[in-house]
Amino acid sequence: MRDRKQLSPGVVRGQWHHRTDAGRLQCDLCPRACTLSEGQRGFCFIREARGNDIVLTSYGRASGFCIDPIEKKPFNHFYPGTSAFSFGTAGCNLGCRFCQNWDISKAKEMDRLTDLATPASIVDAAQNADCKTIAYTYNDPVIFAEYAIDTAEIAHERGLQNVAVTAGYITHGARAEFFEHMDAANVDLKAFTEDFYKKLCFAELAPVLDTLVYLKHETKVWLEVTTLLIPDHNDSEAEVAKLCEWFFEHLGPDVPLHFSAFHPDFKLLNVPPTPPSTLTRARAQAQKAGLHHVYTGNVHDKAGQSTYCASCKQLLIERDWYVLGAWNLKHGKCKQCGAVLAGRFEDAPGHWGARRVRVPLHA
User: Fold this and answer.
1) C-alpha distance across the termini of the chain, in Å
2) Low-confidence winner among 23-32, 112-121, 157-166, 269-278 (lowest mean pLDDT)
3) Is 208 helix (H, G, I), strand (E, B) or coil?
4) Buried b (16+ CB within 10 A) or exposed e, 107-137
5) Cβ distance 4 to 10 under 8 Å?
6) What number is the average pLDDT over the span 78-106?
7) Every domain of the chain and the residues it spans
8) According to a count of CB atoms within 10 Å of the terminal CB, is the N or C end of the chain lower?
9) 294-303 pLDDT tens trace
10) Are 307 and 319 in contact (CB under 8 A)?
């Protein structure tokens, strides 16, 4: 692991920034490109201008640690049934009005970060809990990239996998190093219009699409994508059709796509929950567009959450919420026709189930 100098407790020098002609410091980590004067924090809240640097102020400070099923991230094609040691920090570089982790991602109080842990102690805890994976999640790991990278490097040295749950809002200059240390990524594609991203996320769609194409075609990172369907905002047949058409053309048929149900939260309390029928319809649209592995989430739907062979339609992995049932894979191939299932699989599924275990951790 690289030797990062701690400037003060929880504070390290950030890697991606430069001084502008106007004398301010510009953050080059995400497309927001915040320009900061001394002592000013960026939109994400956890990166701050100090002296000649932009510093990360949440290094070694987390909002909590839990052991989750890998399917909860969600990953359906990445070592199914195994457990993921999950953590995040505070803040976010998007401003989603519908955020369902808003108490963490919108936090602007550092005292929310009550769990202190070095990268090495996180990996120790994950190993002691017999987790296969460390998941950088809850808020977007892009904004705590230095902390995530240092943890991921040690995890790889110890034989653990790393997964990022992210909105994919990262610059060309930063993404190569960040994703170099990740084995899988689930990218949250919020919608398929710039208008939605601008009004409901205070961000832009184009950089996210760029990240998706980069991950698929320029890395070995296993990729899955999630879209939260919000009634009357991004769930129309026309928008879903455009999303699926772009997805098939640019990412191909084998990248899993998860359509997830919205529930009223944060600043979008006046919008009703997503009807299960909307997810079913969107899944059918995606399948008709040629996508092989399309899932529904946040609803009870065994058929929509199970995995099928793209060649012979055999049930390969049965799922009931996060509990696995039938397993018809052998060496990552369909037992019936021998077709390879895209993803990362072991010969037998894990048995973690639906448990979610909070883990106290101290540096």
Assistant:
1) 17
2) 112-121
3) helix
4) beebebbebebbbbbbbebbeeeebbbbbbb
5) no
6) 84
7) 6-56, 61-358
8) C
9) 999 999 999 9
10) yes
Q: What is the pLDDT of residues 35-87, one digit of tens each?
A: 999 999 999 999 999 999 999 999 998 888 999 999 999 999 999 999 999 99
Nearest Cα neighbor of 309 from 334, 289, 329 is 334
Give the three-state DSSP class for 269: coil
- Show Cβ contacts of residue 199 under 8 Å, excluding neighbours closer than 6 positions: none
Q: Measure the CA–CA gap between 223 and 131, rounded to whole angstroms.
A: 20
Which residues on neighbouring strands pair with residue 26, listed in sequence order? 18, 35
Instruction: Give the sign of the dihedral formed by CA 235, CA 238, CA 242, CA 245.
Output: positive
- Across 166-201, b (16+ Cβ under 10 Å) vs e yields bbbbbbeebbeebbebbbbbbbbbbbbbeebbeebb
Choose which CATH entry (3.20.20.70, 3.90.550.10, 3.40.50.280, 2.40.50.140) describes domain 61-358. 3.20.20.70
* Model pLDDT for residues 278-292, shown as the tens digit of each residue: 999 999 999 999 999
Within 63-200, strands assigned E span 64-69, 83-88, 115-116, 133-136, 161-166, 184-188
- pLDDT value at residue 354: 95
- Other Cβ atoms less than 10 A from the Cβ of 253: the count is 15
Residue 46 to residue 61: CA distance in whole angstroms = 11
Give residue 103's pLDDT.
54
Q: What is the pTM of this model?
A: 0.95
Q: What angle do CA 296, 277, 352 make, to 5 degrees?
A: 25
Q: At what angle do helices 237-251 and 276-288 cross, to 10 degrees?
A: 40
Question: Measuring CA to CA, how many Å separate 117 from each of 6, 121, 225, 361?
Answer: 14, 6, 29, 7
